[in-house]
Amino acid sequence: MCTPPDNDLGYPYRADFVENTVAEKTYQLFSWAVFKVSCPDPQEYSEWTDRGRTRVSHDEFASYLRWAFERAGNAPKIANVSKLIPQADGWRLEAHTATTSANFGPYDGVVVSGPGGARPNPLTHAEGFYNGVNFWQSTKRIEGTLHRNPTGTIVVYGGGGTAAAILGWFARSGFEGYQIQSLTSQAMLYTRGNNFFERRLFTDADAWNRLSPSSRRAFVNRLNRGVVWDTMADQISRLERLSLAEGRVTRVERQRIGPAGSRERGLEVYFDAEKGPASISANLVIDATGFDEWWFRSLLPDDWRDKLEPTNKVERDRLRDGIQQDLSFGPGWTLPRLHVPMLADLVGPGTTNLLSLGDLADRILASYMLAPGGHA
Description:
Layout lengths: L19 H11 L1 H6 L6 H7 L7 H15 L7 E8 L2 E7 L4 E7 L1 E3 L17 E3 L7 H10 L4 E5 L3 H12 L6 E6 L5 E3 L3 H8 L1 H5 L3 H12 L2 E3 H7 L5 E5 L1 E9 L8 E9 L2 E7 L1 E4 L14 H6 L5 H9 L15 E3 L17 H13 L7
Parallel strand pairs: 4-15, 5-14, 6-7, 6-14, 7-10, 8-9
Antiparallel strand pairs: 1-2, 2-3, 11-12, 12-13
């Protein structure tokens, strides 16, 4: 996992939120350090510290989140929300569980989080083609495919954290010797470390606000796009036959491979390179170009769903630039309060990722807790 685990649920533990004791109590009850100390193995925290406070797996961080939820006495309701319904008293949610459908609410506000689904592709269900979502759901199947065809070519296109995580999986899973082609808009994997000057922007709001909007967006893009953590770069460097190529993929097509009359089919990846159009034949292709951060549009009423069509860039940019300090849409938004941290890159550097979960929670909750009669 790229996020340092001590960037936990309360980080950066702002002492100025509501009252000074909130940060202290949050650390005492729900911090990563307390989680490690409370583990059955009494040496687990000291061993993690002695090893240099190393990155942890997604499973281990998920265990921490489950522990915190249970400790807080919260029981998450597992359901698929299919519709956000605006009413005079706030939002109502139409949702479906494994056995029933129901409406929930009213709610003064709704937070939509997460990167959304993978961008649609006509080959999403084609043999040998995966995206940044179903790749992780299909690793056993992919392992079988690669073991049956160790001489095939793997193509991963996209240059951000999703592509890096997938390349890291190949390195960790015993496929270091396979032919892998990485296609990105820049034929280089840039790394980012963990230095004081970057971390300061997550904890010093004044320093962040002194940056111009373009500088803020450039900083967030550097965190999330086209760069990988140094620990992940070390894993990727173990791929013995990894090639980096510069190009923007235009399409992927099924094709027949093997001798004449063969019924075996593969994939052809077409891309625009500096010297002109080119293509690569592959047995396995992963589209790691990213996700739809406006995914929640499908939950909104028809008029707003139309306003936020991908082609309506002016409306999208206007709403995004007007996001408030509580991460909700501002001027021009006519529905109940909707908090959209994945779009709030101008408000703070930790809103679009897991690097400042405490600040994200402070921003949203303060707008309800500090308002006269406010409630969530």
